[in-house]
Structure formats: structure tokens, C-alpha cells
Specification:
This protein has 482 residues and is mostly helical. The chain has 24 helices and six strands. The longest helix has 28 residues. The radius of gyration is 28 Å and the shape is elongated. It starts with 16 loop residues before the first helix and ends with a helix.
């Protein structure tokens, strides 16, 4: 099969204002914002059969999962279906992956439950705000921010979420009530109240009539307005990238961001709660041979038909049945093999993974933030402690493996002083900088001081292969060595 999207690459060179304006209004630019224009003209009749089969299969999978995930979010079950059809229509026009299906997911439902408190009005408002934030991020081309979320953080979060969601359904299977939502209390009270296990009557939560202003609702959302939009995009793009690699095509992170954001904005007008890409349904979509995003239209139609004709029957679905659907959906998310892979490839990756995994049992947003912070600190440590390979060839040859920036200056200074200037007698050094592609002002000042110290001790400090210094810096260093 041909690649779904053939996106235009970057153009190098200068152009006049008129040329740039013409480029912005060109058909290729329109294709970039509406990827359907890329594949629709090439659409084949043979693809229609595959898209219909895939859309119907995913639709039949979506209906029970959507009902179950609404339960995870603490909302009436029909809100799962309200959330499940808009993504199929919007993503057909705006998505860059043939496989991804947007809709309610276990993780997003768990996150929403933490902030909406089972209130449908708040859930719909949160959807609108999340979509607005995601769309604004897409228009500002902020998709690159997702590159700073490491794989161990993603895996730690998804594994913890799977455990939390799966165990959270045990109370429904056993028919237990008044079990706290906080994970550790939930574990304690579930086992404590096992003797109270009884059969699943449905209960209805009615509004108490209290009037709450828009500002108060947004204030109550708090960190949810950062966590939910970001995690929604992160989950969907991670899935899209995985299937794009498997099926040999590419996706555009900003365009995916735009598609998800607009889906949530439009979904809020049909009482949806926030949605994102579903791994399970995307896998079903891919395995049934979907050829284009048009399969999402069929899925959306199946959900709409279910809403139109099957809603009365949904009232009689036992909570225990929905709980079983959820547990079966999240069990594969607990990927214990990834721990072994982290151990074999890079043991330090277990640190952000375990941080995210463990903190997510306290609060899911704490797990995400904690994992990102730990990953960031590890990244900064590598910047501050670049690898320096030292060889003795009469003079010391020190090879740097990366750029030099201000956090690394003290470390470089210490290594040079210890290995060369504090030796008896002092040693000359050749600093091999073939791999150095960045140098900042703090490093230059430090190098000046080091050159002075080497000169005072009657030994040399020679730079080999350094290509990044500007002329004025080179001149300054040359004056010091003369």
C-alpha cells in the first residue's frame, strides 16, 4: 500500500514576501492542514471494502468499551457513547495515521474521574477547554514538547494506570459500595469489605441544584487543565508513531494535535468527555486491514446507531459486565517485559519508570510530573557531566563526546586540573573537540582561564577539531596563548 500522507519537506533558501504568501495559500499547504486531500484523490474501490470491515469491527468493539470507560470516569454510561463517535468523523479529515481511532480510553477516563467528580456538566466543560488548549498548541506548533517525555515515563504511567483501573473495577465485580477512590484506601477497603460482597443494582446520581460559576469550575479543575490535554496528546501520538513505524508511513505530531483538539472541541457540543487515541481499538483497526482514516466514519455511524436504537437496553447492563470489559482491556497494558528490557539496555531508565509507576498510585498527575522531573534531571546530568575519554600519548589527549555548555564547565575544569595541572610535573593536553557542536559564553570564559593557568605552568592546552567558535573568540584565545 502507498504511504497515507506524503507531506512536503522543508524548503531551504530565501524567498520574497510574495513567494512566502503564495506558499502559505498553496495546495500543498492546504494538504498539510487537511490530510484527506492527500489520500482521497488516490482512493481505490478495493480500499472501501477493507475500510468498511475495519470500521464495523472497531465500532462493535467501541460500544461496550465506551460504556465501560464512562463508568471509570464516574459518569453515566451514555456519556461514553457521546464521546465515541465525533473522533471518527473529525480524524478522517485531519488525521495523519490510517490506524488511529479517537475515543474514550481507560487512562483518559481515569484522569477525568480525578477532576470532574462524576459531574457530567463539568466533564463536558473540561472537554471544551482541553480541546481549546490542544488546538492552540497545534496552531503554535508546540508538538515538539512531546519529545521531552521519555519512554520510561510513558511506560511507568500506563502500567500504573492499568493496575489502578483494573483493581478499581473489583468493587463492581463484587458489588461493593462506598469504596474510596484513593488507590491505597481502595485496596484496603476492598479486601476489608469482601464479606459484604453482594449482587450489581444500578444507582442514579442526581444534581443537588447548587449553582456553581464558570470561574469556580475552572479553578476546581486546577492542574487538570495541564495534565489531561497533555496526556491526551501524548497517548494518541505515541500510539500513532508505533503503528506508523509498523506499517511504514509517517505522521505529523502537530497535525495530530490539531485533530485531537478539534475532536474535543466539537465533542463538547454533543456531551462528550475528553478523548484520545485508543491502543486496543487502533490495534483492531490495523489488524483488520484498514486502508485510510475513512474507517472512522463507519465506526462513528455504528456508535450513533447504538445511541439511537439501543440506549434503553443499556440500562440493564450489569456493572459487573462493564467491569469485566475494562479489566480485559487494561490487563495487556501491564507490560512486565519492559522492565527486563530497561535492565538489559540501560538500567538508569528504571529510575523514571519506577518513579512514575509508584507515584501514580498516589495521584496520576504526580506520577507524570515526577517521572518528567526525574527524566529531566538525568538529561541535565548528562549535559553537566559529558563523557571525557583520556589517553596518554606523551601528552594527554582528552576526547569530548558532546557539546560544551555552562553546566559542564566546572566538571571540565576539574578534570583538566586533576589530570594535567596537578600532576608532577604538569602535563600538556590536547583537547579533542571533533564531536563538539555547541559552545556557550560561560565555557569560553572558562577556557580562557584554563589557557592562562596552563601558560603559567609552562605547558600547553591545544584544541583539536573545534569548529564552533566564532572569530572573536578564536582571536581572544589566540592572544592568551601568544
Amino acid at each position: 500500500m502507498e504511504p497515507l500522507v506524503d507531506r512536503p519537506g522543508p524548503q531551504i533558501g530565501r524567498s520574497s514576501l510574495g513567494e512566502r504568501m503564495a506558499s502559505c495559500c498553496s495546495y500543498r499547504t492546504l494538504q498539510a492542514w487537511l490530510p484527506i486531500l492527500t489520500w482521497l484523490p488516490k482512493y481505490r474501490l478495493s480500499w472501501l471494502q477493507m475500510d468498511l470491515i475495519a470500521g464495523l469491527t472497531v465500532g462493535l468493539t467501541t460500544v461496550p468499551q465506551a460504556l465501560a470507560y464512562a463508568e471509570v470516569a464516574g459518569l453515566p454510561v451514555q456519556y461514553g457513547l457521546y464521546s465515541a463517535f465525533m473522533g471518527g468523523f473529525i480524524y478522517t479529515f485531519l488525521g495523519t495515521s490510517k490506524d488511529v481511532t479517537l475515543g474514550p480510553t481507560a487512562i483518559m477516563s481515569l484522569l477525568c474521574a480525578s477532576y470532574v467528580g462524576g459531574d457530567p456538566v463539568r466533564a463536558v466543560l473540561l472537554t471544551l477547554l482541553c480541546g481549546t488548549i490542544q488546538t492552540a498548541m497545534a496552531l503554535l506548533r508546540l508538538g515538539f514538547l512531546l519529545d521531552f517525555i521519555s519512554f520510561p515515563v510513558i511506560k511507568g504511567f500506563t502500567c500504573a494506570a492499568a493496575v489502578t483501573i483494573g483493581f478499581g473495577q473489583v468493587k463492581n465485580v463484587l458489588g461493593l459500595k462506598d469504596i474510596p477512590h484513593e488507590f491505597f484506601l481502595q485496596v484496603y477497603y476492598t479486601f476489608y469489605r469482601i464479606p459484604e460482597t453482594r449482587a450489581p443494582p444500578l444507582s442514579e446520581t442526581t444534581p443537588n441544584g447548587t449553582s456553581i460559576s464558570f470561574g469556580e469550575i475552572v479553578e476546581d479543575f486546577g492542574g487538570g487543565l495541564a495534565v489531561i490535554p497533555f496526556m491526551g496528546v501524548l497517548e494518541s501520538i505515541a500510539i500513532a508513531k508505533a503503528f506508523a513505524s509498523q506499517n511504514d508511513y509517517r505522521i505529523d505530531a502537530n497535525q495530530e494535535l490539531f485533530a485531537i483538539g478539534l475532536t474535543n472541541i466539537m465533542g463538547s457540543f454533543v456531551s462528550a468527555y475528553p478523548v484520545t487515541g485508543s491502543f486496543g481499538r487502533t490495534a483492531v483497526n490495523s489488524q483488520t486491514g484498514v486502508c485510510t482514516p475513512a474507517g472512522g466514519i463507519v465506526t462513528g455511524v455504528v456508535v450513533l446507531l447504538s445511541l439511537a436504537f439501543l440506549m434503553p437496553a443499556f440500562y440493564y447492563i450489569p456493572k459487573a459486565s462493564l467491569a469485566a470489559v475494562i479489566i480485559c482491556a487494561v490487563v495487556p497494558m501491564v507490560d512486565y517485559r519492559v522492565v527486563i528490557q530497561f535492565w538489559r539496555i540501560r538500567k538508569l531508565d528504571l529510575v523514571p519508570f519506577l518513579t512514575t509507576f509508584l507515584l501514580s498510585f498516589w495521584e496520576v498527575q504526580y506520577g507524570i510530573v515526577g517521572g518528567v522531573v526525574v527524566s529531566g534531571l538525568m538529561l541535565l546530568y548528562n549535559v553537566a557531566r559529558p563523557s571525557i575519554k583520556v589517553c596518554d600519548h606523551g601528552v594527554l589527549v582528552m576526547e569530548l563526546d558532546s557539546g560544551l555548555s555552562f553546566p559542564s564547565t566546572e566538571y571540565l575544569n576539574t578534570v583538566l586540573y586533576t589530570q594535567a595541572l596537578q600532576a608532577s610535573p604538569p602535563r600538556s593536553v590536547v583537547l579533542d573537540c571533533h564531536h563538539v557542536n555547541t559552545v556557550d559564553y560561560t565555557v569560553v570564559n572558562e577556557l580562557r582561564d584554563l589557557l592562562r593557568q596552563f601558560k603559567l605552568r609552562g605547558v600547553g592546552l591545544i584544541f583539536s577539531g573545534l569548529q564552533v567558535l566564532t572569530d572573536w573568540v578564536c582571536s581572544g584565545l589566540q592572544v592568551l596563548t601568544d
